[in-house]
């Protein structure tokens, strides 16, 4: 197996979403938009019948409860399902 294929196969939803928000977006994105880039760029091997549900579950679990302190993701308040990356103690809100 090629090294690049192995990395893609082993990549988590969180890693793939982070790559999208870091490299392919200059604004907050919805899970559907993030998934589209993941699929288009081949950032993660897709298995199962509900990849969007997996991505949404991961994102929402990262921005709620105990995980929110250590999460790299931030959900925009007052907005339905718009996510961006946290940048240290500030948020990456490049263009709202």
UniProtKB/TrEMBL annotation:
- Pfam families assigned: HARE-HTH
Query: Mind naming one GO cellular-component term on file for this protein?
Result: PR-DUB complex
Name the keywords, alphabetized. Answer: Transcription
The reply to whether Transcription figures as a keyword in the UniProt entry is yes
Keyword set includes Hydrolase: no
Q: Tell me the Gene Ontology biological-process terms attached to this UniProt entry.
A: animal organ morphogenesis; positive regulation of transcription by RNA polymerase II
**Recorded GO MF terms:** chromatin binding; peroxisome proliferator activated receptor binding
Q: Which residues form the HTH HARE-type domain?
A: 11-88
Tell me the domain of life.
Eukaryota
Q: Where are the transmembrane segments?
A: none
Record-linked InterPro entries = ASX/ASX-like, Asxl_HARE-HTH
Full protein name: HTH HARE-type domain-containing protein
Upper lineage: Eukaryota, Metazoa, Chordata, Craniata, Vertebrata
